[in-house]
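Appendix C. Worked example: Synaptobrevin YKT6
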Amino acid sequence: MVKLFAISVIRRPTEDPVGGRCVTLKASFDLASFGFFQRASVQEFLSFSSTTIVERTGLATRQSVKEQEYLCHVYVRGDGLGAVLVSDADYPPRVAHTLLTKVLDDVSSKVEWKMANAESLKNYKEIDIVLARYQDPKQADALTKIQAELDETKIIMHNTIEAVLERGEKLDDLVAKSDNLSAQSKMFYKTAKKTNSCCNF
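Step 2, the predicted output written as C-alpha cells:
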C-alpha cells in the first residue's frame, strides 16, 4: 500500500555544515496507521531521522535512503533549505522528489526562512494540505496518473484477448474466415506465425 508518513522542512547551516545544528522549521505527520500509543514515539523517531539525514546530505543534493520498509527522500538545496519525505517502499521516488521541490519553493516564496524558527511557521498550513494530497501519487502527479491510465488500458486489452480465447475461438480460424483481410494479409499472418514458431521452445 502506498503511504506517506511525514514531511519536514529543515534549515541546514551553510557556514558550519558539520558542527552547526539543523533546525526543523515545519513538519507534518500522518500516523493513523500506527497504534495510538505508538504515535508519539514514531513521530519523535521520524523527526530525529529527518534531521539526521539532512545533516548528512550535501548541499544541492537529492537522495533516497532506505530504512527497513521505509524510504526517506531528501532534498537539500544549495542555500541550505532542505526537506525530507518519509514514505513506504512502494511510493514512487520521482513523485516524492517533485513534492519536495514544490514544498521548498513554496516555503522560500512565503517565509523568510533563513531567520525563521518553528514558532514563526506554526501558521504555515500548506504542508499539511500537501501531505494529504500526495497520499495518492496518481491524483497529485499528472505523469503518474497518465501512466496508471495507460496500465489500465493495457490490462483491459489483455483481458479482451483472453476472453476471446476462452470462448474456444482461435485466432487462426478468425483470420482464415475473415472477409476483411486480403489474401496477401492472410499469407503475411501465416508466414509471420511460422517464422515466430521456430523461435519458441
